[in-house]
Amino acid sequence: MTETAPARLAATVLLARDGAEGVEIFMVVRHREIDFASGALVFPGGSIDPGDRDPRLRSRSDGADQLDDDRLSVHVAAAREAFEECGVLYARESGSATIISGRRAAELGDKYRQALEKNEIGMADLAETENLRLALDELVPFAHWITPRPLPKRFDTHFFLARAPHDHTLEHDGSEAVDSVWITPRQVTEDADNGRRTVIFATRLNVERVGESGTVGEALDRARAARITTVLPEIEKTANGRILRIPIESGYGKSEFHLHGGPGGAKLANKT
User: What is the mean pLDDT of the chain?
Assistant: First the structure.
């Protein structure tokens, strides 16, 4: 009997803004040499780092009061990944109610992003040195997915939705991510269906869910009101592809999806 691979705790963030055609999401293209979702269009994110559990973070974070230690580390990881991979920093100067300026975020990015990526420092070090408070209250829990049991590389991923600060310049890091784009949910699904982009299943369903809202404000309100159900998909192989089942109460409209293509670039054949 094959042992089930453990699922690594991870966080990812859907950075959103209002555009001319509705909500737009900032997405990055994964480097093709990375062993998970290589070449795919994804949300910024990654596994929890040891520094995300630094006890100093609780007193340096807005929105930490209702979070246990595990949930706090996941929120911190989401904020860190957004900063490392995109340059957006959800933080406030101590005593301020507003997010730091884009100029300040860029200066801090030049100073700290590489050190964070190399695990030379943690977010607690950045916050203490620069007298900042992490604005974790800006990150709204959106979904929770666990990679199916048969797969060898598994993640226990918490998704967050956040409004991108209007004056922060978002750009990919050129390391794990080799390209980036502001894109509407409709364009993501059209590109995936036409083979122009690789979009993994969980990414696609969460993109489509954001696209049900006409504005970022509406999407955030819906996320705050929703009850998050953990999604651990069950996969059945058939002669015509795969059937993937998720809980109907998870909020994606259907519980059964027919897929064709490989795991990384699977397309929805239909929904039932």
Answer: 89
